[in-house]
Prior knowledge:
Blueprint: E1 4-6, E2 12-14, H1 19-29, H2 48-60, H3 80-92, E3 96-100, H4 103-115, E4 121-125, H5 130-139, E5 142-146, E6 150-151, E7 156-157, H6 162-171, E8 175-181, E9 188-189, H7 192-201, E10 206-209, E11 233-236, H8 238-241, E12 249-253, H9 266-276, H10 283-319, E13 325-327, E14 339-340, E15 346-348, H11 356-367, E16 373-374, E17 378-380, H12 390-407, H13 431-436, E18 439-443, E19 457-459, H14 474-485, E20 489-491, E21 500-504
Amino acid sequence: MAGWRRGYYGARMDQTRTPYLDALVALAATNPGRFHIPGHKGGAGADPGLREAIGDAALRLDFPSGIEGVDVGPDPLDLPFQQSQALAADAWGARRSWFLVNGASGGNHAICMALAHLGERAIVQRNVHSSVIDGLVLSGLRPTFLAPEIDDDLGVAHCLSVEALRGALDEQPDVVAVFAVSPTYFGAVADIGGLAEVAHAHDVPLVVDESWGAHLAFSDLLPANALACGADVVLNSVHKLGGSMTQSAILHLGADDDHPDGRIDGRIVDRSVTLVESTSPSALLTASLDAARRLNAVSGAELLAETIESLRDLRRSIREIPGLDVLGREITQAASVFAWDPLRVSIDVRGTGTTGNRIAKYMREEHDIWFELYAENVAAPAFALREPVAEPARRLISGLTDAVTALRTEPDEPKAPFAPPPPWGPTVMTPRTAFLGPQETVGFDGAEGRIAAESLAAYPPGVPNVLPGERLSRATLDFIADSLAHGGQVRGASDRTLSTIRVVIE
Ligand SMILES: Cc1ncc(COP(=O)(O)O)c(C=O)c1O
């Protein structure tokens, strides 16, 4: 029957239910006397501009969680909040799941904090999201960085290979966790089953940042999700492609037959999630996760099939625009790429003689079309679960055709390879030691040779180019300055204009 799924424990949970959303709506409908925060009291105390913009219906639902009978009560396991998290665990195939209101970023912070009491060493894929690096700073974990496979033709980072992980684990005793990211921004999916097997053979849990893959659990047309492949911890940034509201995400714990209670103690994860989250998590965000879970679990397969089909047509149309190509399944030819997510549409602009940055800017200014990701050689509009592709696709194609016509120059060398970021600098000290140790501010241009005290991630895509504790090279400084000059931003820097940078006093 549609709406029923077989959960991890073999229990059949009714995925058509939304206990948290329903409880919140029912509560607001009683028109309760609001002698508590938020001070806008369901809208009455809010600025008229905000009331007009988002409507009183949304403001009436804006409670901090901690509501008696919804989030807290005498039977904690039977409250709408716990039921809703249990439904999420069932839907994604987890042993236990935690709703996060500070994004997958908060989940990465929490899991680093949860693991650090077990020891200090972790193996970390070098191009993890900057929130993992922030988690290393917070927790003091000492990373051994492993480079992902770099695609020389495309010049993009792919996945962590099983061989690279095996080599690192053989060399490195006392590792408390492996941190990997999959899928990548370009839809490359790692061999999570292989990585998990190697990690588990060394008795080490595998943490997978599957922020871009919340949808993978819901369609047989997609690669299997990381939990199904044996990952021990998985982060899903559900607001990205899963349909919940911005900032909402989920942290899952997995389990297998050898470890039915998992390799990581849920009570410690619980404590760590609480440690990094607000004491007033938004009930509205929580309700949006409850609703997104239902949509994915009940209708995901159908909606994803439609979207995947429409994107096939869209790719064809984009390829017909002179100079444009779209990355596709061929990326699975790379050794570390196990599968490809067909929801990603990464437009290769190398044949146009202009850059992804310029195309994105032109699309914004001339067509009011906004891309999720763009860089020198690529521009990537994001598509998600319930994408009414036909009309937006027409708009996208017409904008792209105009942008390419307006900006096109004869490329010196058609299909010039992507310009990859320069190699990462050597790690001289842990991120935490560098971030918290004695430091000073120096001019950005004169920072070559110094040890960074902060991370710098040219955004998009936000993968750190420099980490606290790494020595700065001329090539890296130039690359970041160039990204800024081409309209990018930098995350992590204390001086966002990057005229200065904080470095360690040696
Ligand atoms: C791989 C990866 N992990 C984590 C995050 C952070 O997710 P959130 O925005 O939910 O905090 C991002 C955001 O872009 C990401 O790309």
